[in-house]
Design goal:
Helix content: 25-40%
Radius of gyration: 25 Å
Oligomer: single chain
Number of domains: 2
Number of helices: 15
Distance between the termini: 57 Å
Shape: globular
């Protein structure tokens, strides 16, 4: 028998205020909007911060394909109904709205699909929502929103304008010097974060070789490589491929550990300062999770170990497939993931091994092997590591595909196998006398390879 049902529509006034506090800061909010520009096939994205006291605004403009009327209405919906392709950066259908309104009280979107065609405009206004308590999207006249409309006079694309920046300008005197200085500081923070988050897109290192250009207040945003791969002394630890079963699917997680050089081994002092990153050395160590080549989490050990001054040179790139989003519990703001229990042991072992190498590099051991000895030892270690990985993968396959084993038992076995693999390779390195990791990098690693 069918149950009676009544639709209960959430209070717009209450819910929209709650959605303003789901984990964005201004840099991560702008990154979410850049995701949309990439999905619209944009080649250029321009971000402009215009300071004018209480009337300040921020604009994000792209030269993408623009949106038709139906697409614009759907884009303004909280919980967009359209399906996302597996290679898209979007996921929840909330980014444009929740990211924007986390920083401003008025969000205006102007878009155009053809030069000479119609410019469409839509707006969310929090003051209007508080008055009406209704989910009403406003459709202002073009003359009422020049910052959004003017850039589209002679081009296709989409312009998004934030006004009423109540989360950015909280000063008693919004047009004072302190407010201006804070506005300028925020611009610097934004550039660093976007250069890090989209570094593969800025250099064309994505799997599709897709490249975009980002501009902030008229200046090009430069990419920031977390792994300093252009430095000859950077250690490229062997790549690991972890197999993880979630639901009825098996996913491959690609793990690429790196150990950056000690300060004295960098090519220049400027290169060392730049390698520190937007959050500086100690807080930049750890895991770097990527989804569809977009950086999600930058640093931190995800509670597998603590940050330490002696391991600050350790950074690990981890590529997760978009099909595994649920397993990694990707947040709406796309800034953090949770490591599934089935691979925590393996990642803990990789982190431990990488940190041991990083600690040796940090302490700069005074005794080192000759180049010939290092090369010979490195070759033996590489051959042994390959053999160990082949055996481990074969055993892991047996465990994963054994229908008699409960998933909890599979997870524990895979964790133990991963730890054994790291321990065997570490012990082999010790027996072969490989302790000077910087010499090891010069003879074994060679030219930097793209991620």
């Amino acid at each position: 028998m069918a149950l009676a049902a009544t639709e209960v529509v959430p209070s717009a006034r209450r819910l929209v205020q709650s959605l303003r506090d789901i984990g964005y800061d201004i840099a991560t909010a702008l990154a979410d909007l850049v995701d949309n520009s990439i999905a619209a096939s944009a080649r250029n994205v321009w971000i402009d911060l215009h300071f004018n006291g209480g009337s300040s605004w921020i604009r994000i403009l792209d030269d993408g394909s623009g949106m038709r009327e139906r697409d614009l209405r759907e884009a303004m919906r909280f919980g967009t109904q359209r399906a996302y392709r597996s290679d898209e950066l979007g996921r929840f259908g909330l980014g444009l709205k929740s990211a924007s309104l986390s920083q401003c009280r008025q969000l205006t979107v102007a878009t155009r699909t053809a030069v000479g065609g119609r410019i469409r405009v839509a707006r969310w206004d929090l003051d209007h929502i508080e008055r009406s308590d209704r989910w009403e999207v406003l459709r202002p006249d073009l003359k009422a929103c020049p910052p959004a409309v003017e850039p589209l006079r002679f081009r296709t694309g989409t312009a998004i304008v934030w006004e009423g920046l109540d989360r950015l300008n909280r000063y008693r005197f919004p047009d004072g010097r302190r407010a201006q200085a804070d506005f300028d500081r925020v611009a610097s923070d934004i550039g660093g974060h976007l250069g890090m988050t989209f570094h593969r897109f800025l250099t064309g290192e994505t799997r599709s070789r897709r490249r975009i250009n980002l501009h902030l207040n008229g200046k090009e945003i430069l990419s920031w490589d977390p792994f300093s791969r252009e430095e000859s002394a950077t250690v490229f630890v062997p790549v690991q491929r972890l197999r993880m079963r979630h639901g009825h699917h098996t996913h491959t997680i690609v793990v690429r550990p790196f150990v950056l050089p000690a300060e004295s081994k960098f090519s220049t002092l400027a290169a060392h300062r730049r390698a520190a990153g937007p959050r500086f050395w100690a807080r930049q160590q750890g895991f770097y999770f990527y989804r569809n080549d977009r950086l999600i989490q930058a640093g931190g050990w995800s509670r597998l170990r603590t940050q330490d001054e002696h391991t600050k040179l350790a950074r690990v790139a981890i590529d997760i497939p978009s099909a595994a989003d649920d397993a990694f519990e990707l947040t709406v703001s796309k800034t953090q993931v949770r490591i599934p229990a089935s691979i925590r042991g393996e990642l803990a072992a990789i982190a431990s091994s990488t940190c041991r190498i990083a600690e040796q590099a940090y302490r700069r051991p005074s005794v080192s092997m000759t180049d010939k000895q290092t090369a010979a030892a490195a070759n033996r270690l590489d051959a042994l590591s390959t053999l160990v990985r082949m055996i481990v993968r074969a055993v892991s396959d047996l465990v994963i595909h054994d229908p008699e084993l409960p998933k909890s038992v599979q997870d524990r076995l895979l964790s133990v196998i991963g730890e054994m693999e790291a321990r065997v390779v570490d012990q082999a390195a010790v027996q072969l006398g490989i302790t000077d990791t910087e010499s090891f990098a010069e003879t074994s690693v060679g030219v930097a390879r793209p991620i």
